Amino acid sequence: MKFAIFVNITREKALELARELTAWLEARSLDYVFDPQSAQALGSGKWEEKVDLNQHCDAFVALGGDGTLLLASHYSRSKPVVGINVGDLGFLTEFSPDEMWTAMDHLVSGNYSIHTRSQLEATLESGERLTSLNDVIIEKGSASRRLPAFTILLDDEMLASYRADGIIIATSTGSTAYSLSAGGPIIAPKSNVFVITPICPHMLTVRPIVISDDKTVKVWVDSQSGEFPLKMDGIQKKLLAPGEVVTVKKSPHHINLVANEKRNYCEILRKKLLWSHEHPTGE
Question: Mapping DSSP to helix (H, G, I), strand (E, B) and coil, where does residue 68 land?
């Protein structure tokens, strides 16, 4: 069995865990490789290009926060991904550093369960296709002096056209990311829906809307000038021209996250959002 390991190289704890993990794998004669950036930070010669990891590795390990897991999942495709939380929030990275060894034992033995998560696919006018686990974001950018209008179609029917700082199309997984910060709802991960969330809309009547994930969303920016950042999972992929259409729909490819059987979604929400902080359960 061969593992692909992604590490948040800005966190010393993640680098320390990576060293401990590689020693654990070597003691069991299990093969592994890092992505190039992680290997360089650790001084390891065992690395492969990210685009090749899916072909040669059986499972992926992300040591960091949700951002590290998102990066690993982008290249994992259908391979299982185990997330070890060395970050601050960690909605997706379900295992603590202390739980890493149990998670790895289960991964090696095949005794684990999977959370299957839907992705978004964004198709550009050029034909280029991009995927994201959390969200597709189009922002107003800095070039346009006037607040631009975002036009949205659902299955080729007009939904809305409103002025805003941007628009977020998020999966249920991504509902607790940028969409939540922008006022969007929390959506249970297995819900077959997406949410369209405006960023700082010009009118108070503009609100997030939850739609079925079998819908096709088309978005473009009505503006005379400017360039508008298109981001996938927070990473800028392109600057869109005025009127350039982005078509967003459910991707045919899923992400398989290794589940922590000791935790459930309600517990994650209580812990991460401090819902029981003011009035602890039982008091």
Answer: helix
Q: Nearest-5° angle of CA 74, CA 18, CA 91?
A: 50
List the structure tokens of 50: 């990210």
**pLDDT class of 102 with cuts at 50, 70, 90:** very high
Which segments of 48-187 does DSSP mark as H helices, in order? 50-56, 66-76, 100-109, 178-181
Query: Are 14 and 70 in contact, with CB atoms under 8 Å apart?
Result: no
Handedness of CA 21, 27, 33, 37 (dihedral sign): positive
Do residues 94 and 263 make contact, with C-beta atoms less than 8 angstroms apart? yes
The CA distance from 134 to 172, in Å, is 8
Q: Quick one: angle between helices 12-27 and 100-109, nearest 10? A: 40
List 31, 52, 66, 135, catalytic entry = 66
> pTM for the full model?
0.89
Beta strands in the chain (DSSP E): 2-7, 31-34, 59-64, 80-85, 114-117, 120-123, 129-132, 135-139, 149-154, 157-163, 166-171, 193-199, 209-212, 217-222, 228-232, 235-240, 246-250, 255-258
Whether 66 sits among the annotated catalytic residues: the reply is yes
Element (H, E) at 1: none
pLDDT digits (tens, 9 = 90+) for 201-238: 999 999 999 999 999 999 999 998 889 999 999 999 99
Return the H-helix or E-strand segment holding 77. none
* C-alpha dist (Å) from residue 112 to 103, 106, 109, 269: 8, 6, 8, 22
d(CA 142, CA 273): 32
d(CA 195, CA 45): 43
